[in-house]
Amino acid sequence: MDPIARARPLTSRRRVAFVDSGLGLLGYADALHTLRPDVGLVLSLDPDNMPYGPRTPDDVRRLILASAQAALAHEPDAIVVACNTASVHGLDALRAELEPGVAVVGTVPAIRPAAAAGGPVAVWATAATTSSAYLRGLVDAFASDVQTHAVAALGLAEAIESGDSRVVDECIAYAASQTPAGVRSLVLGCTHYGLVADRIVAALGPGVVVHDSPVAVARQTLRRIGLEPDPLGPEAGVEAVLLSGRPGNLPESWAAYPAGRRLRDATPAVDWRA
């Protein structure tokens, strides 16, 4: 039996599942927990198959469906696909499979609000995303009249996943060196990057505004399940962690990031070691 489920048995509590190949879901789970701490969290990662970026669309679709299906045993009211790649390739399939019984919410880089704030805009993303038709479509749709630069933040997602602070800083420094001078807004085009947003700001300087989507996604998720934000509710925390469908614990490495530490502190009754 899942060690976290033993500590927090299933109840009538509302809960939301987050699916991603890796740690990108932490910031999204943390944002929802901040708005509604009484909503239970199910975190479904896929370490056996990460990263999703180099995989074919069919592979991504199959893998994200499997992660979502594993989370269904915990009776979530909604599933958040906390991965841009998986949202592009798997969102429609998930909605066809699960809705209307379970709401499905995807993620998308925050290009629209960044463009509305005025350019120039830079979008940091994985190498696969920066050259994708998906990103070009978003820019054409929401930022066609704003100067926009796609920057491949080479190795940054992998460094964040490993928890290697030195390599994270090296990757941030490289991406910052590739970012044109005069950029006013930076869009984080990978869900991992928000975990080190403070270090990205420090590298780029105070004149650049960072745009990310966890709070917007959290608010949309609450709307989909008929809840209003209530940050003063009782703590529920993480009720289950799934690792490629297998029950697991909260990995200690997550505490390297503020979002991970907050989720750890909100879940005091469970083992944080893995």
Automatic annotation (TrEMBL):
TM annotation in the entry: none
InterPro entries (alphabetical): Asp/Glu/hydantoin_racemase (IPR015942), Asp/Glu_race (IPR001920), Asp/Glu_racemase_AS_1 (IPR018187), Asp/Glu_racemase_AS_2 (IPR033134)
Family matches, as Pfam families: Asp_Glu_race
Keyword Isomerase: yes
Keyword Disulfide bond included in the entry's annotation: no
Keywords, alphabetical: Isomerase
Name this protein carries in UniProt: Aspartate/glutamate racemase family protein
Annotated organism of origin: Terrabacter aeriphilus
